[in-house]
Amino acid sequence: MKMQEIKAFIPARDFELSRRFYLDLGFEIPWQDEQLAYVRYQHCSFLLQNFYVEAHARNCVMHCLVEGVDEWHAIVSQKQLAKTYGVQLSDLENQPWGMREFTLTDPSGVLWRIAQNQ
Question: For residue 1, is it within any domain?
Fold first, then answer.
């Protein structure tokens, strides 16, 4: 048995706003319709859905392991995504579990933990 991929379905309270947020963050959207968008950054991807339940969105956490987390944080800060989209961006922190990370919420309240192994 082989497994090729696992994708999360991420909720969007305002589908168009969320779509623009992820594009501004640096993702691409090679396919979409009115209900679903295939969102990708290099070989990592998820499905943004035009569906929203607040309890689900507020308890959804994505973990994104990157190289150069300091550069990622600087780019997100420079793009002023927190101000533009009214979302939360944390400072960088060294975690006791051996990662350096920051958090970013999307416009629907989904929490992204963007991290690098130390």
Answer: no
CB-based contacts of 105: which residues, under 8 Å, 6+ apart?
87, 88, 111, 112
> To the nearest whole percent, how much of the chain has pLDDT over 70?
100
Provide the pLDDT for residue 23. 98
Assess if residue 3 is contained within a domain: no
Helix (H, G, I), strand (E, B) or coil at 56: helix
Question: Chain-wide mean pLDDT for the chain?
Answer: 97
User: What local confidence, expressed as pLDDT, does residue 10 receive?
Assistant: 98
Domain extent at residue 52: 9-117
Q: What pLDDT does 82 receive? A: 96
Q: Which residues contact 79 (CB under 8 A, 6 or more apart)?
A: 24, 25
Quote the radius of gyration of the chain (alpha carbons, Å). Answer: 14
Q: In the structure encoding, which two tokens stand for residue 45, read together?
A: 């991807």
Relative to beta strand 9-11, strand 36-41 is unpaired
Number of domains into which the chain is organized? 1
Let me know if residue 2 belongs to a domain: no
Q: Which of helix, strand or coil describes residue 2?
A: coil
